[in-house]
């Protein structure tokens, strides 16, 4: 059997059962693909189920507030996905009369939809012969065909895009695309690949040359930038605190947080105390909640986070009841603090 035939044969026996595998509704396929971008299925599945329950149709998602969408997304990370999800839902619902585009080229025009997502929706929902290219597919193709072009370069993308398309089952692109993704996720895994039970072993270049652990090739990213976040957790006598919404582009846009002071390095107690003395001009008690920084690692930056508790009689500005904190969409590092602090 050919490479393609072997994959689809393997899939017919080993197919994983997920709710989005039982539909060709483009809304649900799109929703699953956006949620699963840079997210493992075991983490993304509960979010998919929650979104489908809360927003069963694209109109329901479109009519929701952005705060509601971000709150439901809370903990999943990469929040630009949630903002784009909401914008695209509104575009489809109100400008396209609730009908998703039916071709790869038109799907690419949707906000937050790239090559992989457009290929997946086009092939699964509309049987368009477009090969998907994600991390699992890169791994399977690079090992089987022995391709060492770096997968995170423009030239590498072009090599693998052509290779993926050449091996696509054009008669059944949906099955083939899901087969190669499942194969990479469960058989040809990043570490400890199950080569001994692999149906492709006899023709796998990486296996025959002993390079399974070396493929695919990826150029190392730059060293992450360190940033130092100091969150000010105001607590008044009448059980109120202050939260603010992040407006600027960048991480956590439109999420809520405690007032933040970002410093170039770890901020000493006395430096913060002097600053607050000059700004607040009222009596307050300052204490550091976490002696060790909470380090929140993102792809290109590491956030060294401290939570400073400020007890005072009255807030310096309008605040919210502590009981209302749970209503706000917050970054996971703040969500964890709220749970641990136990207001």
From TrEMBL:
Signal peptide: none annotated. InterPro entries: A/G_AdeGlyc_MutY, DNA_glycosylase, HhH-GPD_domain, HhH_base_excis_C, HhH_motif, MIG/MutY, MutY_C, NUDIX_hydrolase-like_dom_sf. Its EC number is 3.2.2.31. Keywords: 4Fe-4S, DNA damage, DNA repair, Glycosidase, Hydrolase, Iron, Iron-sulfur, Metal-binding. It catalyses: Hydrolyzes free adenine bases from 7,8-dihydro-8-oxoguanine:adenine mismatched double-stranded DNA, leaving an apurinic site. One of its GO terms (molecular function) is metal ion binding. Its cofactor is [4Fe-4S] cluster. Binds 1 [4Fe-4S] cluster. Residues 35-186 form the HhH-GPD domain. It comes from the Bacteria. GO terms for biological process: base-excision repair; mismatch repair. Belongs to the Nth/MutY family. Adenine glycosylase active on G-A mispairs. MutY also corrects error-prone DNA synthesis past GO lesions which are due to the oxidatively damaged form of guanine: 7,8-dihydro-8-oxoguanine (8-oxo-dGTP). This is Adenine DNA glycosylase.
């Amino acid at each position: 059997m050919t490479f393609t035939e072997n994959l689809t044969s393997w899939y017919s026996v080993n197919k994983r059962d997920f709710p989005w595998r039982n539909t060709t509704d483009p809304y649900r396929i799109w929703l699953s693909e956006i949620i699963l971008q840079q997210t493992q299925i075991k983490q993304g599945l509960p979010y998919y189920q929650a979104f489908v329950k809360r927003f069963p149709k694209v109109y329901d998602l479109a009519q929701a507030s952005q705060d509601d969408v971000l709150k439901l997304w809370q903990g999943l990370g990469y929040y630009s996905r949630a903002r784009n999800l909401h914008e695209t839902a509104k575009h489809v619902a109100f400008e396209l009369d609730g009908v998703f585009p039916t071709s790869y080229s038109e799907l690419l025009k949707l906000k937050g939809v790239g090559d992989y997502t457009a290929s997946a929706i086009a092939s699964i929902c509309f049987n368009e012969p477009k090969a998907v290219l994600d991390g699992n597919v890169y791994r399977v193709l690079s090992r089987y065909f022995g391709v060492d072009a770096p997968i995170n370069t423009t030239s590498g993308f072009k090599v693998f895009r052509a290779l993926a398309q050449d091996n696509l089952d054009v008669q059944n692109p949906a099955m083939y695309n899901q087969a190669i993704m499942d194969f990479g996720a469960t058989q040809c895994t990043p570490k400890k690949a199950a080569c001994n039970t692999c149906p492709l072993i006899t023709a796998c270049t990486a296996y025959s040359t002993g390079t399974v652990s070396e493929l695919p090739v990826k150029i190392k990213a730059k060293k992450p930038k360190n940033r130092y976040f100091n969150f000010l957790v105001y607590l008044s006598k009448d059980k109120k605190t202050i939260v603010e919404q992040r407006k600027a582009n960048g991480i956590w846009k439109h999420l809520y947080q405690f007032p933040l002071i970002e410093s170039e390095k770890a901020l000493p107690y006395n430096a913060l105390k002097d600053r607050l003395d000059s700004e607040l001009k009222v009596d307050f008690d300052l204490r550091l909640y976490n002696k060790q920084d909470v380090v929140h690692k993102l792809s290109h930056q590491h956030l060294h986070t401290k939570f400073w508790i400020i007890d005072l009689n009255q807030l310096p500005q309008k605040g919210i009841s502590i009981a209302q904190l749970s209503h706000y969409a917050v970054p996971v590092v703040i969500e964890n603090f709220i749970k641990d602090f136990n207001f």
